[in-house]
C-alpha cells in the first residue's frame, strides 16, 4: 500500500514538472523560399533571459527545455532585415518560422528579378520594410512595380522614386532634367545615381557638373531601385544631398525577351535579351535598338544602339559577376525659340531657328563585382572602368552676340573613369544587444582628356572659347554602426571622410593649377518601433557636393578676360528629418516625413557659359507623404 501511494505521489508531482517546459523550433528562409543557414536566432523571455543558436545547413534551429511563458524569437543575418516572432510556450512544441528580406542598405549581387517583392503585399510586412528602413524617406521600387508602368523614356525609371520629377529638352540623347525636394537638380547635381554598382554622375562635366545620363539603361533588365533622400547614410558621398538611387540589374531572366515596337513620330524599338546557363553561372546578353523623331518639324532622328553582356556565378549571399556595357546615341534637337517668333508667324510651334543642333554620345564600361557572405560577416568589392564622350551643339541666343556667324557653340567631354569600392558588414553584440558595424572605402579617378567649349557655325568650329584637361581623384572612408538596443529602439551612427585632388591643365595657364580639399561628415539616426506595423524615425547628418574643378582653379573669365573668383571645391550640406511609416492597413504602405536641407552655398560652374556663379546659402524644408 505504501509503495503504491508513493508511486502515485511521484506521478502527481512529475506532471507539473513535465508541463512547465516545451520547445521552440522552425526554419529560416529568404523571400524566394530558399533555406538560410547561419542565421543567428535569439530567444528572449519577458524577464530578459536570452538563449541563442544558429540555423543549420537546412535552415533549421531548435530550443529545447524552454519554460512556459511568452518569448520573442529574433532572426538576424548579414544583408537581411531582422525578423521577429512572438511565441507562447505552454508545455509543448512551438513552431516559429522566419522569412528574411534583403535589407535596403545591403548592396548585394542581385540574382533575379524576384529579389525584390512588393513590400506592401508580403505575408509579414512588419518584417520587410518596417523593421529594415532607417528613415521614412528610404525605400525600394520593385521589378513588378516597374512592369506595371508605361516607360516612355529611360529616365522614367527614376521617376518611380516618390517625389522625383523628370523632364527632357534638347533632343532624346541628352541627359534628363531632375527635380526633387525643391531643387532644380539640372542634369544630376545633388542626386547621386548608380547602375549595377557604377556611378552615373559625371563631375567636372563639359555640359554641367554632376551630369547624369541614364540613356544606356535597359528598363526590362532592372530588378529594382533602392532609394533614399537626405545626407543621412555614411556610404553615400558626393551629390547625395537631396537624394540617391541605386539601380540594380538582374543576373538572369525568367525567360528570354524579344520585343519589337513601333508608333507615330518615327518611333521604333527592338530588344532581344536572354540568359542561358553556362557552366555554373548565367550569361545575360541584351541588345537594344531605338529610333525616335518626336513631334518636331525637323525630326530628332535619335538613334540608339545599346548592349550588355553579364556573366554571374553564385547566389545572393556569395558570388561574382563580370559586366560589359556599350551605348552610342546620336540626335538632332529643336531647342528653345523666342515666343514672339511664333506669335508673329515667323515659325511654327514645332519649328526651329537653327537646324544644325544636336549631339552624339557614347559610353563603354566594364565592371567586376564580388561578394562573400558568412553568417556574421559580408564583404563586397566592386571595380570598374568607364570610357565616355559627348559632343553637344546648342544655340541659346542665335545671332545676339555674333550677327554674322551666329551664337552656336559646341561642348565636348572625353574621359576615362576608373574606380573601386570595398565594404564589410559585421554582425556582433554590444552588451548583449544585436549590432552591425559597416566599414568601407571608395576610390574614383576621372581622367578628362578633353573638356572644352567652342564657338561653331553649323557644327563647324570657328574658335576655341576654352579647352582644358582635368584629372580629378577622390578617396573616401566611412564607418557606420547600427545597434538594436531593444525590440523597439534602433540607432544609427556614422562618419564619412572624403579627400579630393584636382589638377587642371588649362588652355589659359592663369586658370589652371592643382589643389587638395577634404571634408568630414557625421551622421546619426534613431528608429522607434515597430508597434502594430508602425515605425517612427529621426535622422540628421552632414553631407556635401563637389564643384567643377575648373571653377575651383579659375582666376580669369575665359570670355571677357575679367578677373574671376574661384569657388569652394566642396560645399557643406546639412539635413534633418522626422517621419513615420506604417503597414497597418492591409496592402497599403504609407510614410510621412518633415524634412529640412541646407547648403552653405549653391555654388555652380555654368558649362554653357564657362563661368562661375556663387549664390547665397539656401535652406529648404517640406512635408512628404507617400
Sequence-ordered SSE layout with sheet pairings:
Blueprint: H1 2-19, E1 21-30, E2 40-45, E3 50-54, E4 60-67, E5 69-76, E6 83-89, E7 93-95, E8 98-100, E9 139-142, H2 143-147, E10 165-167, E11 177-180, E12 183-184, E13 191-195, E14 198-199, E15 201-202, E16 211-212, E17 222-229, E18 243-249, E19 257-262, E20 268-274, E21 277-278, E22 281-292, E23 302-314, E24 319-332, H3 339-343, E25 358-373, E26 377-394, E27 409-430, E28 433-457, E29 460-486, E30 489-506, E31 513-531, E32 534-546, H4 549-553, E33 570-582, E34 590-599, E35 603-606, E36 611-614, E37 618-625
Parallel strand pairs: 1-7, 1-8, 13-18
Antiparallel strand pairs: 1-4, 2-3, 2-5, 5-6, 9-17, 10-11, 11-12, 13-14, 15-16, 17-18, 19-20, 20-22, 21-22, 22-23, 23-24, 24-25, 25-26, 26-27, 27-28, 28-29, 29-30, 30-31, 31-32, 32-33, 33-34, 34-37, 35-36
Question: Would you write up a description of this structure?
Answer:
A hairpin with a 3-residue loop joins β25 and β26. The longest helix has 18 residues. The protein has 626 residues and is mainly beta. 5% of the residues lie in helices and 54% in strands. The chain has a 17-stranded antiparallel β-sheet that branches.
Amino acid at each position: 500500500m505504501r509503495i503504491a501511494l508513493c508511486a502515485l505521489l511521484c506521478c502527481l508531482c512529475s506532471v507539473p514538472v513535465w508541463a512547465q517546459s516545451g520547445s521552440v523550433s522552425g526554419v529560416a528562409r529568404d523571400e524566394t523560399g530558399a533555406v538560410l543557414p547561419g542565421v543567428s536566432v535569439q530567444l528572449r523571455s519577458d524577464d530578459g533571459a536570452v538563449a541563442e543558436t544558429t540555423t543549420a545547413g537546412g535552415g533549421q534551429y531548435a530550443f529545447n527545455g524552454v519554460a512556459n511563458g511568452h518569448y520573442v524569437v529574433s532572426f538576424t543575418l548579414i544583408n537581411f532585415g531582422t525578423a521577429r516572432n512572438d511565441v507562447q510556450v505552454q508545455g509543448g512544441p512551438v513552431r516559429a518560422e522566419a522569412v528574411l528580406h534583403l535589407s535596403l542598405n545591403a548592396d548585394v549581387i542581385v540574382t533575379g528579378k524576384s529579389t525584390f517583392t512588393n513590400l506592401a503585399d508580403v505575408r509579414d510586412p512588419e518584417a520587410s520594410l518596417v523593421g529594415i528602413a532607417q528613415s521614412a524617406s528610404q525605400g525600394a521600387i520593385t521589378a513588378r512595380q516597374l512592369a506595371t508602368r508605361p516607360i516612355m523614356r529611360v529616365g522614367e525609371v527614376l521617376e518611380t522614386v516618390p517625389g522625383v520629377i523628370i523632364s527632357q529638352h534638347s533632343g532624346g540623347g541628352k541627359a534628363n532634367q531632375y527635380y526633387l525636394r525643391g531643387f532644380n537638380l539640372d542634369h544630376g547635381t545633388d542626386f547621386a545615381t548608380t547602375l549595377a554598382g557604377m556611378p552615373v554622375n559625371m563631375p567636372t562635366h563639359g555640359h554641367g557638373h554632376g551630369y547624369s545620363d541614364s540613356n544606356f539603361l535597359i528598363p526590362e533588365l532592372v530588378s529594382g531601385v533602392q532609394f533614399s533622400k537626405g545626407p543621412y547614410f555614411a556610404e553615400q558621398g558626393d551629390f547625395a544631398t537631396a537624394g540617391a538611387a541605386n539601380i540594380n540589374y538582374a543576373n538572369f531572366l525568367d525567360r528570354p525577351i524579344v520585343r519589337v515596337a513601333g508608333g507615330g513620330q518615327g518611333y521604333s524599338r527592338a530588344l532581344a535579351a536572354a540568359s542561358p546557363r553556362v557552366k555554373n553561372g548565367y550569361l545575360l546578353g541584351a541588345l537594344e535598338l531605338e529610333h525616335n523623331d518626336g513631334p518636331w518639324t525637323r525630326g530628332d532622328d535619335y538613334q540608339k544602339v545599346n548592349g550588355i553582356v553579364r556573366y554571374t556565378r553564385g547566389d545572393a549571399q556569395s558570388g561574382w559577376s563580370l559586366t560589359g556595357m556599350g551605348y552610342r546615341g546620336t540626335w538632332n534637337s529643336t531647342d528653345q525659340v523666342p515666343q514672339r517668333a511664333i506669335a508673329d508667324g515667323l515659325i511654327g510651334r514645332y519649328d526651329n531657328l537653327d537646324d544644325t543642333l544636336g549631339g552624339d554620345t557614347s559610353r563603354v564600361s566594364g565592371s567586376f563585382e564580388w561578394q562573400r557572405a558568412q553568417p556574421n560577416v559580408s564583404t563586397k568589392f566592386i571595380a570598374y572602368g568607364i570610357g565616355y564622350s559627348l559632343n553637344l551643339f546648342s544655340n541659346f541666343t542665335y545671332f545676339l552676340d555674333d550677327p554674322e556667324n551666329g551664337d552656336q557653340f559646341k561642348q565636348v567631354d572625353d574621359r576615362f573613369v576608373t574606380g573601386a569600392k570595398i565594404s564589410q558588414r559585421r554582425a556582433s553584440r554590444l552588451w548583449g544587444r544585436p549590432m552591425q558595424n559597416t566599414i568601407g572605402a571608395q576610390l574614383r579617378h576621372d581622367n578628362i582628356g578633353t573638356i572644352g567649349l567652342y564657338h561653331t557655325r553649323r557644327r563647324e568650329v570657328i574658335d576655341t572659347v576654352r579647352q582644358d584637361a582635368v584629372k580629378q581623384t577622390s578617396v573616401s572612408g566611412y564607418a557606420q554602426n547600427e545597434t538594436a538596443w531593444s525590440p523597439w529602439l534602433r540607432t544609427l551612427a556614422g562618419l564619412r571622410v572624403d579627400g579630393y585632388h584636382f589638377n587642371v591643365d588649362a588652355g589659359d595657364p592663369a586658370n589652371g593649377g592643382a589643389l587638395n580639399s577634404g571634408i568630414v561628415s557625421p551622421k546619426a539616426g534613431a528608429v522607434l518601433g515597430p508597434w502594430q506595423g508602425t515605425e517612427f524615425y529621426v535622422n540628421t547628418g552632414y553631407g556635401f557636393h563637389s564643384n567643377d574643378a575648373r571653377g575651383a582653379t579659375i582666376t580669369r573669365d575665359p570670355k571677357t578676360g575679367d578677373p574671376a573668383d574661384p569657388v569652394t571645391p566642396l560645399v557643406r550640406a546639412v539635413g534633418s528629418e522626422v517621419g513615420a511609416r506604417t503597414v497597418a492597413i492591409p496592402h497599403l504602405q504609407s510614410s510621412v516625413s518633415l524634412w529640412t536641407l541646407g547648403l552653405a552655398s549653391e555654388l555652380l560652374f555654368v558649362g554653357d557659359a564657362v563661368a562661375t556663379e556663387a549664390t547665397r546659402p539656401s535652406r529648404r524644408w517640406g512635408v512628404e507623404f507617400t
